[in-house]
Amino acid sequence: MNLLNKNDALSLARLRDVLIRLEDTIIFALIERAQFALNDCTYQPGVYKYDNGSQGSFLEYFLHEMEKVHARVRRYTSPDEYPFTSPLPEPMLPTLDFPPTLHPNNINVNKDIMERYLQDIVPKICAPGDDLNYGSSATRDTECLQALSKRIHYGKFIAESKFMDPTQQKTYIKLIQNKDRDGIMELLTNRTVEAALLRRLRRKALIYGSDITETGEVVTKEKEVEEGSTATAAAPGATTTSRKIQADVVADLYERFVIPLTKEVEVEYLLQRLDGWQIPEDTKN
Ligand SMILES: O=C(O)C(=O)C[C@]1(C(=O)O)C=C[C@@H](O)C=C1
């Protein structure tokens, strides 16, 4: 998606295409993380002494160092990129002129994303234990977190696109003026799109998580289980083998966490949408 082009950034069909592409990024990132054990010590504060004075966990240290470099190459000046850490340095590249697609807002749900990722996702996809691959786990964690953050914050563009729809704008304005959070949530919800997304995700996760044998046979995780394969067994309580994740885990995490947080971003964005905005005369009544 070229966010320097305003038409691209506000077409609902194009935005949904971006979300579909990000599904692939997220599934592969999760599969990559699932190769390594939980490595809980990378998430606990104070395990190591850090040269940047950080008191947080190894993951936070790593994220901050990486985000500093990314900030220097202006990653976070793009309206679809949100950092997890601060303070960050100014870019060394000249600023790009993004057209003002989004209404000014202060929404950043990365704290919630981090919490859910650590509490719900990592324990589901990784085998318990410690395999000493701390750098590899943290690298994969940052890839998962960045992809999830981008996907979820795309809710802002989607909300803007829905708000700008002339057939809906009047209704949105009324709901926003009444601070009717539930009404806004209901209006922006499209259950058909959500159901199709979950079906597609299950299929994708099944295919991406499969192995192809030398004879070209596709061996899915489900099949391995059915046939009592000797492939690396999942650790007790974990829902994965050491390399692949189950299709249902991905769909479940979208259903319980990715879609609801995206919708939360949409609602929050819309609640701020009228601030400092001149309501057009023809939508006033
Ligand atoms: O596609 C949309 O209309 C969105 O708002 C995105 C999304 C999603 O998170 O995938 C969220 C809410 C809708 O109910 C459907 C899908």
From TrEMBL:
| Molecular functions per Gene Ontology | chorismate mutase activity
So what does this thing catalyse?
chorismate = prephenate
Q: Which InterPro entries match?
A: Chorismate_II_sf, Chorismate_mutase_AroQ_euk, CM_AroQ_sf_eucaryotic, CM_II_prokaryot
Enzyme Commission number: 5.4.99.5
What processes does the entry annotate via GO biological process terms? Answer: chorismate metabolic process; L-phenylalanine biosynthetic process; tyrosine biosynthetic process
In which pathway is this protein known to take part? Metabolic intermediate biosynthesis; prephenate biosynthesis; prephenate from chorismate: step 1/1
Question: What keyword terms does UniProt attach to this protein?
Answer: Amino-acid biosynthesis, Aromatic amino acid biosynthesis, Cytoplasm, Isomerase, Phenylalanine biosynthesis, Tyrosine biosynthesis
Chorismate mutase domain: from which residue to which, for each copy? Answer: 136-266
Q: What cellular component terms from Gene Ontology apply here?
A: cytoplasm
Name the principal localization, coarsely classed: cytoplasm
Q: What is this protein called?
A: Chorismate mutase
Q: Which organism is it from?
A: Linnemannia hyalina
